[in-house]
Amino acid sequence: MNLEKMYQEIILDHYKHPQQKKLAPLDNGAVEVHHVNPTCGDEVTLRAQVIDGVVVSVTWDGLGCSISQASTSVMAGLTQGATLQHSLDLTAQFLSLMQSKGVTTEADEVLEDGLAFAGVALYPARVKCALLGWMALKDAISRESGELNE
Amino acid sequence: MNLEKMYQEIILDHYKHPQQKKLAPLDNGAVEVHHVNPTCGDEVTLRAQVIDGVVVSVTWDGLGCSISQASTSVMAGLTQGATLQHSLDLTAQFLSLMQSKGVTTEADEVLEDGLAFAGVALYPARVKCALLGWMALKDAISRESGELNE
Amino acid sequence: MPEPKLNAEILKKDFPLLERTVRGGKRLVYLDSGATSQKPRVVLDAERDFYENRNAAAHRGAHQLAEEATEAFEGAREVVARFIGANSREVVFTKSATESINLVAYSLSSADSPIQWIPGDEVLLTEMEHHANLIPWQEMAKRTGAILRFIPVTDEGLLDLTNIDTLIGERTRILSFTHASNVLGTTNPVRFLADLAHSVGAVVVLDACQSVPHEAIDVVALGVDLMTFSGHKMLGPTGVGVLWGRFDLLESMPPFLTGGSMIEIVTLESATYSLPPKRFEAGVPNMAQAVGLAAAVNYLTAVGMDAIAEHELDLVTKAISGLEALPGVRILGPAGPRGGALSFLVDGIHPHDVGQVLDDDGVAVRVGHHCAWPLMRRFGVAATTRATFYLYNTEDDVRALIAGVERAQKFFGSAP
Amino acid sequence: MPEPKLNAEILKKDFPLLERTVRGGKRLVYLDSGATSQKPRVVLDAERDFYENRNAAAHRGAHQLAEEATEAFEGAREVVARFIGANSREVVFTKSATESINLVAYSLSSADSPIQWIPGDEVLLTEMEHHANLIPWQEMAKRTGAILRFIPVTDEGLLDLTNIDTLIGERTRILSFTHASNVLGTTNPVRFLADLAHSVGAVVVLDACQSVPHEAIDVVALGVDLMTFSGHKMLGPTGVGVLWGRFDLLESMPPFLTGGSMIEIVTLESATYSLPPKRFEAGVPNMAQAVGLAAAVNYLTAVGMDAIAEHELDLVTKAISGLEALPGVRILGPAGPRGGALSFLVDGIHPHDVGQVLDDDGVAVRVGHHCAWPLMRRFGVAATTRATFYLYNTEDDVRALIAGVERAQKFFGSAP
Ligand SMILES: Cc1ncc(COP(=O)(O)O)c(C=O)c1O
Ligand SMILES: Cc1ncc(COP(=O)(O)O)c(C=O)c1O
């Protein structure tokens, strides 16, 4: 019963058919980051490229549980082609969803498939899994901006 | 009530009129040791001289509570002039009295005034006070013998 | 609205141990809370509740029980943080204040320390430190070549700040001192000293073992960088202490104890470490003790820290005047304003013997050097008798203390 | 007379937590004792009794309560010492096995250590160590210039002793390894390795976290020099661990944590230290936790360590055959003789997801790298699912585990 609530069809679909799970070549100033979940050893490598304030490419590879894989897939789908600001907003929104203990608000609807992770917020130990890819994106963006600023 | 049992007249007498509490000069191969009770800071300096297997002199000085002072006084009185072996036997006997939880045996009678400390054995925190001078003697004797053996 | 005065007679009923008798039926008069405090029922219940309902390895499991244990442990951290006006990520659970200070002394002297030691650099302490805030620095000095210096203590038992400008200087890298003396009851001018030390760029460590249990503390207002205290002295369980630190400082400090749950990535050859506070909490933590400490903090808060401080000052003031009225009794330390530790000497009677007579009356005090041996030497004594007060002590307890000292004087025939 | 088999159904009633339900009324099947064990009522009662009747600062007071607290604390030491066939002066109470190992690694690398390090000296570990027995040595190697070497692990999960003669040699100063693997269940040949290490003069440290709780241990027969374990994994409270050491070795080791109650004489400039065990127990100790641990030891002894070992072997054997009967399930580690830690992989399902399904059924297992990340890499996996058994587990628990794994396979559609 609870299980189905957590592992929504959308999540299992993304898990089985992850989006953009193939690292694009590292050129044109794309940034690569590598994040690890220290409690379970799950890993993600993410490459992001920002041009003129738009995240033109988000690709990744990784090893991990259904939640981390599906969530990274959703993230990649939502942010590729989005503006930098929108990507950051989405990240903030997803983070707040994960801290919501399962209560969703209207604002969460921008997350589209990401909304399916509301059930995960009920399992504190899995929140980190769901955040793995999003935190990698945030890191990549801040490095990218760091470089731009220099 | 308990107090009187612990602070026997004999103990208070020795406390007020300690025996051999005046360090003899350090010559003729006498040994000096300095012992401290780490829980309360009480100290004793003891000088002992052994000649031909006889403890010819035991003098001391120190700062401490009634129990440590009285017990050191009794020790000095009993061991000065005794054979080395007898002094060690007395020390062992006193130690066993202190571990007796207040139950005395016939064997304890060799301790003479030292028997008055049976009540102290009921107060574990004071046992160390009662042993301070005796342990200093034991140490002095073993150093003395160490030196003899060299 | 001012906090109401506390009623110790009523509070006392919350402490099961205080109902017991000693030495053949005597009422226990517990005046040794400076060594360790008694525990209210709610603290014991909280620990037991943790074990009976939520016990599992925090931060390590993905099952429900582990989640609940993590929540309990992290919840305790928040309660403790709020109590001292801190953010929870700045609160590290250790086993004791002693461990906390050692953690700081080791971490700040390791190769990766934010302080890079040059022989001749100085650590400034005071003459009134507890061994726990002295020996770790002696050992650290051996490792780094640092020199220890000491703020002296006046005859009144206050820090002698006359030459403070020559004591704090460019070479001072660390100032570590006690907020309240566990022997003299002195309360030190934290903010003044901290500001002075900061003006030369030193790190300021506060030993708050004898203040956090007894008065309202706002760590930001104190202006220090690191602060330590022990749970067992503030109604909490044994086996838990706290290190608080400014987050940016903690973040720059290398770990001390290493092992599980404080890592990011581990290979056979090397490891990277988590952010504080986890970086400093290797291994399965003292979860039940942290939970018990949080319950103690909640209890203290409900009673009111200002009310506690006022109550203790009232008791210690009465004790001082009662004891000073006895001929041949000398108080060590300031008259006031002061903390609740009260050390005294009775002419002609060794503290051990004073304590024995008190014990015979059911009055539990501490005798000895109180782990502050150098301070004893400063006052030319080997030991003192010390009474310490807490929220559950009553005026009856003070009367029992004074009566006991009188009895000791009679017993040893030293009363003039 | 052989010990009677234990009856887990009856013992279970002694553990209040095991009566609770999880995830909406499911019976709790606790298979995570390798992380931390549950506590029988007698342990909670013993701790509470200490606080309610004997709480005071051990070794520090001269009053009756302090005497009783000292007796309780030192009595606990004797109980623990007897349990492992040791003398009580060889038993040091720490906060955890993690602290114990750090104590050893710091003490043996300090300037006064009995081992004087020459760069190139070696510390020998194994590839199956818990982070607690790996990272402290990495840090120590940084300080001393020592080189870490590792006994490899075979595909079966055993130590690969083929080249042991090249691994242990003249340069080996310390051999530190686990008695039983917390991941694979492997039990290592302690005596053989200890004798070999002694033949080159190395100090032998044993991590007995996963053996002392589960089988009868005689530390003399094991032939090691130092041994560590944690109370919370053996029915005891959190916040207490043990370091056992040969007395002459302990006596030659400088202190680690310094502060009160571990000293002989203290001046502002320097201090001299007590004999072990006090030398290693600075500060007011974790008295209640030591007392609780002694109650746990008494409980374990009453049940019988051989009966416990037999019971666990029975359960793990049944679990192995049940899991192996499922297609696509692979066990890591030896078939037997073995300890009770059982790690496995389910084809096509990540351990986190296996654990989640089990949790949904009320079965608490651990998933992840189990603080043995390098061992995971050795087996080419990021994580495993791990079940660990203890005296209160039943065959029903084993059945629940197997049924849960089957359900996970159905849920994720990975069962062939
Ligand atoms: C083999 C082994 N060693 C060391 C430890 C560390 O124990 P603790 O976390 O209680 O210090 C553990 C448990 O986590 C373990 O299983
Ligand atoms: C001022 C002060 N600092 C440090 C300590 C050490 O505390 P603990 O023994 O709990 O580590 C104490 C208490 O003994 C103390 O009074």
From TrEMBL, chains A, B:
Q: What is the lineage of its organism?
A: unclassified sequences, metagenomes, ecological metagenomes
GO BP terms in the entry: iron-sulfur cluster assembly
- Which residue range or ranges hold the NIF system FeS cluster assembly NifU N-terminal domain? 6-129
The record's annotation in Pfam families points to: NifU_N
InterPro entries from the xrefs? NIF_FeS_clus_asmbl_NifU_N (IPR002871)
Source organism of this protein record: freshwater metagenome
Name of this chain's protein: Unannotated protein
Write down the CDD domains for this protein, in alphabetical order: IscU_like
Q: Which SUPFAM superfamilies match?
A: SufE/NifU
GO terms (molecular function) for this protein are:
iron ion binding; iron-sulfur cluster binding
TrEMBL record, chains C, D:
Q: Which reaction does it catalyse?
A: (sulfur carrier)-H + L-cysteine = (sulfur carrier)-SH + L-alanine
Acetylation as UniProt keyword: no
Answer whether the UniProt record assigns the keyword Amino-acid biosynthesis to this protein.
no
Entry's EC annotation: 2.8.1.7
Q: Which keywords annotate this record?
A: Pyridoxal phosphate, Transferase
Write out the GO MF terms. cysteine desulfurase activity; pyridoxal phosphate binding
Instruction: List, alphabetically, the SUPFAM superfamilies matched.
Output: PLP-dependent transferases
> Which cofactors go with this protein?
pyridoxal 5'-phosphate
Its BP terms in the Gene Ontology are: cysteine metabolic process
The UniProt record lists the Aminotransferase class V domain at: 29-401
What single Pfam family name could you report for this chain, choosing any that match? Aminotran_5
Broad EC category: transferase
Family matches, as InterPro entries: Aminotrans_V_dom, Aminotrans_V_PyrdxlP_BS, Cys_dSase_SufS, PyrdxlP-dep_Trfase, PyrdxlP-dep_Trfase_major, PyrdxlP-dep_Trfase_small
User: What family does the entry list?
Assistant: Belongs to the class-V pyridoxal-phosphate-dependent aminotransferase family. Csd subfamily.
NCBIfam families, alphabetically? sufS (TIGR01979)
User: Could you identify this protein by its name?
Assistant: cysteine desulfurase
Say which species the protein is native to: freshwater metagenome
